[in-house]
Amino acid sequence: MDFRLAPYRVLAHNGRNWHILLLSDGRLQLDFGPFAMAIHQDDFRLMHGLAETAMQPASVTVGCVAHAGVERSIWIDQKYGAWLLVFDGVILRFMPQELLVFVQLCRETSRKLTLTPVSLPPAFDNN
After folding, report:
1. Which CATH class for the 9-115 domain?
2. For the residues 62-69, what does the mean pLDDT come to?
3. Quick count: other Cβ atoms within 10 Å of Cβ 82?
4. What sign does the CA torsion over 63, 36, 102, 24 have?
5. What is the pTM of this model?
């Protein structure tokens, strides 16, 4: 891919200085300002699917809300009201409104790259 001036292309961004970038090697970089991680597009599709599943009204209110294996899930931390996205050893913490912003960035990215998020069944409540 030839991006001319930069080795990436901005696919989605918001006022919080969060970006999703397409890197020259085809991976996607989730850039949250002081923290960023690069993932392959198939992993992004799964992460997007987890986030979409967690946003469904039928989701449980505590514990695991979206699950795609031992290392890939979203949990609600009842003590702090945070959503924890666990993905291959990385834990991203979102407040509820932040998870919605992340989902919107994922939707915009998926639209631009014609990617479909992985469809997941609702999670179980293990509490």
Report:
1. mainly beta
2. 85
3. 16
4. negative
5. 0.87
